[in-house]
Design goal:
The protein is an alpha/beta fold. The protein has helices spanning about 10-15, 20-35, 40-50, 65-75, 80-85, 105-115, 135-150, 160-165, 170-180, 200-210, 230-245, 260-275, 295-305; strands at about 55, 100, 120-125, 155, 185-190, 215-220, 250-255, 290. The chain has an 8-stranded parallel sheet with strand order 7-6-5-4-3-2-1-8, covered by helices on one side. Helix 4 (about 65-75) packs across helix 6 (about 105-115) and helix 7 (about 135-150) packs parallel to helix 9. The longest helix has 18 residues, at about 230-245. It is globular, with a radius of gyration of 19 Å.
Length: about 325
Amino acid sequence: MVNRNAGMALDQGWLEQVRVNLPGANRRAQEILSSRSLKKQWQVAWQLRAVTLIDLTTLSGDDGPSNVRRLCCKAKRPVRQDLLDALGLSHKELTVAAVCVYPSRVADAVGTLKSIGCDIPVASVAAGFPSGQTGLCSRVEEIRQAIAAGAKEIDIVVNRTLVLSAKWDELYQELRTCRQACGEAHMKTILAVGELGSLTNVYRASLVAMMAGSDFIKTSTGKETVNATYPAGVVMTRAIWEYYQRTGFKVGFKPAGGIRTAKDALCWLTLIAEELGMEWLQPELFRLGASSLLLDIERQIFTHVTGRYAATQDFAMA
């Protein structure tokens, strides 16, 4: 079990000391991308690890009870049983880490998971997702409604204007208020890194989010033009490590947006393993926010087992 991040008082001096070497961050990201790739059974093992770290997500305007139910059924059985049998894993109960939906669909997800006997948590985006531009009272009420419907995890989004104008105290106070509204539910704070202007702002916003008590920091909503990038991942994981060294609290990391292939997933797992260590590669400390990733992983496993490529229609909806 991971002790929850209790947060700390805002340390402006710490924020002022932050400087990010952009060429260095880009170079480190490129080193990770060019790492020697895994092959055969080792690749499959890491792909299956990635499956257990996915927040299986649907955030579409036409979401309804039927597609949320399909999502939950896929979350319980993310990989076809015949493929698991062929890998000698028929005894394993493999599930994704969580399902993530809009607040209005939380009750549907909770009810479905209960009816099919699956105890994975339901996460909900809230607090003015995806822009963060609604009033604080509205954002807090949305959090409370999602929790009342049964959400165990809340993915909130920061007000980017506060970051761009360096209003760190105001950002901190807003996030503390959201953290209090979350109560026992874990809070993932979305930074929307593609809209923060610089990697220095990404690092500072990461620190403020953790000081305010975030259980996870997350790259993106998936709705921005630029979402999860590896340089931003390097910067955010370095901030997590520095915060851990100073406070003793381990904060989780969640890249989201544009993670569509098994190769993408393995690159993110490699980044975490190298920057934070293998102990971070567990659902309590690392998630992959994705909607279409699972399908590609299942197709790659199918190819390993059968020696041939599969069509999309050969698999249940991911």
